[in-house]
């Protein structure tokens, strides 16, 4: 496939980082004011009742593609992948819960009452970025390390999605939500008959139309519109879901995520000394790298011991430390939750964004360095396990085509 290179986790991570750096640099040059004006610009007229700024068309619109792909990955992992049984899902679930609870606790204690609404911000792990750093620096690590990081990040994203749906809904329109539920049901029904109509362009167009209508209904209901992507990805049958993932992954990795990173990171750095930055900034900077490291590491050890995982199958302490460090790369979902948590206080959006960028960068640099050093302790690559993982991914793509 011509765009297969863009599926590479290393490429995806570099695109994300490059876009974020570019956004931060541009926002702090003479082009900054013009960029902020462009982000806040609205179309001359509402689109079917939606009056969104250019930035919100990215965060509420385009980002739905990313969440759809994540939801398809979630469904696959819970049905056929690393989380397809209670025993397989138990350890990463315990580790993920520890990696959510401790950062939130640290945030609460550092941010204080004024910034308390932002407690979900440091609980997220960026799947694309974390796996990209691992792929870049941990080429010789055993596949169990990637499997744990992937499973943990998938569960972590599921928790983040629940946070967005539950804690960041300001008003709720029951009629629109009910109609959106009907849209999801229709999408599910269309997915059930996909195999008999998979060659039909008109049928695929109908799927797209139903998805767009459902997205609009969710946006009008008051729930964050990205939840539409999650719902549609979870209910779609495996064959069309995998086909959608294969076709949308290049768009998500190459355009949607970098554009979101650019828009979210394009904030002007406050001209104040470090000591005068708000507690929200420091809470995120500390909670992401420190909270994730100890939360994931300690919970992972407890989970493996409590569940009596065989010693030969356990993720070792040095490997757990590496996973915990990479878990502190919050980025995409953390940036989104920062905007949602602080939408009524723009100055906190700025400091929260800087906190997410700084905390994620610390985790990426320290985690990448640690993984590179740890990687040297594994002189040989278990080609059998890696070949099995590559074959599984190839099988998924083949089934979808």
Automatic annotation (TrEMBL):
Similarity field: Belongs to the NhaA Na(+)/H(+) (TC 2.A.33) antiporter family.
Keyword NADP: no
Domain of life: Bacteria
Pfam families: Na_H_antiport_1
Compartment(s): Cell inner membrane; Cell membrane
Membrane-spanning residues: 54-74, 86-107, 119-137, 149-168, 174-194, 201-217, 281-307, 319-337, 349-373
Function per UniProt: Na(+)/H(+) antiporter that extrudes sodium in exchange for external protons.
Catalytic activity: Na(+)(in) + 2 H(+)(out) = Na(+)(out) + 2 H(+)(in)
Gene3D superfamilies: Na+/H+ antiporter like domain
Keywords: Antiport, Cell membrane, Ion transport, Membrane, Sodium, Sodium transport, Transmembrane, Transmembrane helix, Transport
BP-aspect Gene Ontology terms: regulation of pH
Membrane topology: Multi-pass membrane protein
Name by which UniProt lists this protein: Na(+)/H(+) antiporter NhaA
Keyword Protein transport: no
Matches recorded under InterPro entries: Na/H_antiporter_dom_sf, NhaA
Gene name per UniProt: nhaA
GO CC annotations on file: plasma membrane
GO terms, molecular function: sodium:proton antiporter activity
HAMAP family per record: NhaA
Family annotation (PANTHER family): NA(+)_H(+) ANTIPORTER NHAA (PTHR30341:SF0), SODIUM ION/PROTON ANTIPORTER NHAA-RELATED (PTHR30341)
Primary localization class, coarse: membrane
């Amino acid at each position: 496939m011509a765009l297969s290179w863009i599926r590479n986790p290393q490429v995806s991570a570099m695109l994300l980082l490059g876009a974020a750096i570019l956004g931060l640099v541009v926002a702090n040059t003479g082009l900054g004011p013009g960029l902020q004006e462009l982000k806040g610009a609205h179309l001359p007229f509402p689109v079917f009742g939606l009056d969104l700024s250019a930035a919100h068309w990215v965060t509420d619109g385009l980002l739905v593609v990313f969440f759809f792909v994540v939801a398809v990955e979630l469904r696959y992992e819970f049905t056929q992948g690393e989380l397809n049984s209670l025993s397989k899902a138990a350890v990463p679930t315990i580790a993920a819960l520890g990696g959510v609870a401790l950062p939130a606790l640290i945030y609460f204690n550092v941010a204080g009452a004024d910034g308390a609404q932002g407690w979900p911000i440091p609980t997220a792990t960026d799947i694309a970025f974390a796996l990209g750093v691992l792929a870049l620096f941990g080429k010789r690590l055993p596949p169990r390390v990637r499997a744990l990081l992937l499973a943990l990040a998938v569960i972590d994203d599921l928790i983040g999605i629940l946070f967005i749906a539950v804690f960041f809904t300001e008003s709720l329109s029951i009629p629109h939500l009910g109609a959106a539920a009907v849209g999801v049901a229709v999408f599910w029904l269309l997915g059930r008959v996909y195999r008999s109509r998979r060659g039909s362009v008109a049928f695929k167009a109908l799927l797209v139309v139903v998805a767009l209508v459902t997205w609009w209904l969710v946006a009008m209901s008051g729930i964050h519109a990205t939840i539409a992507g999650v719902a549609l990805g979870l209910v779609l049958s495996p064959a069309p879901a995998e086909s959608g993932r294969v076709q949308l992954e290049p768009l998500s990795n190459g355009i949607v995520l970098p554009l979101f990173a650019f828009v979210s990171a394009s904030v002007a750095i406050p001209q104040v000394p470090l000591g005068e930055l708000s507690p929200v900034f420091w809470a995120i900077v500390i909670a992401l790298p420190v909270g994730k490291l100890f939360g994931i590491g300690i919970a992972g050890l407890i989970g493996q011991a409590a569940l009596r995982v065989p010693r030969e199958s356990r993720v070792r302490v040095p490997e757990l430390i590496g996973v915990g460090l990479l878990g502190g790369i919050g980025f995409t979902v953390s940036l989104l939750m920062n905007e949602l948590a602080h939408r009524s206080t723009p100055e906190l959006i700025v400091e929260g964004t800087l906190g997410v960028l700084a905390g994620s960068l610390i985790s990426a640099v320290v985690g990448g360095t640690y993984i590179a050093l740890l990687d040297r302790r594994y002189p040989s690559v278990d080609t059998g396990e890696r070949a099995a993982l590559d074959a599984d991914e190839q099988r998924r793509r083949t089934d979808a085509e």
